[in-house]
Amino acid sequence: MAAKITLVGTRSSELRTNKSGFSFDMTLGGCPMIPKGLPKPSEEIV
Question: Is the model's pLDDT at 21 over the cut of 70?
Answer without folding.
Answer: yes
